[in-house]
Amino acid sequence: MAYTSSALSFLLPGFGKPVVVTGSQIPITRARSDGRQNLISALQAAVRLFPGFSASILANMCRPPLQGLFIEAHGAGNGASGDREFLSEIEAAVSQGIVVVVVMKAGAVPGFDMTTEAALTKLSVLLGQGLDARTVAELMGQNIAGELTRTGVSA
Questions:
Q1: Which of 83, 79, 85 is nearest to 110 (CA)?
Q2: By C-alpha distance, which of 79, 74, 70, 50 is closest to 125?
Q3: Which of 105, 100, 103 lies closest to 150, judged by CA?
Q4: Whole-prediction pTM value?
Q5: Dihedral sign, Cα of residue 12, residue 147, residue 143, residue 43
Q6: How far apart are the C-alpha atoms of 73 and 1, rounded to whole Å?
């Protein structure tokens, strides 16, 4: 639902009317809950870095027809800012025209203070508009729908 809400803010700019998104599921503590399976599925589909996330994994992800990649990295231990091979793979992806959104050096686009859901959805919406990589990278650093408060020039 966070992704849907984020998408609506980008797809309905200046809409002028409130949009409410609701949903429900049986609580995880109750019998026949879909909560456990939903949680497992969400974890399997996550785009976050984790210890052991190698340059070769990144290289395999950056094959055509990939146009954009969002990497969520937090602090020491799962952000490979000191791993030259990992950074080289990010640089290679950027040189191939793939928009890489992550807060680290290597030509990647800074995500600033966007939520994970907003950043991934924004990247998807912009790529879906058929924009070139440079334009997408520039727009990722601009506040379009209240998704970020800190703006700046992207790498």
A1: 79
A2: 70
A3: 103
A4: 0.55
A5: negative
A6: 22
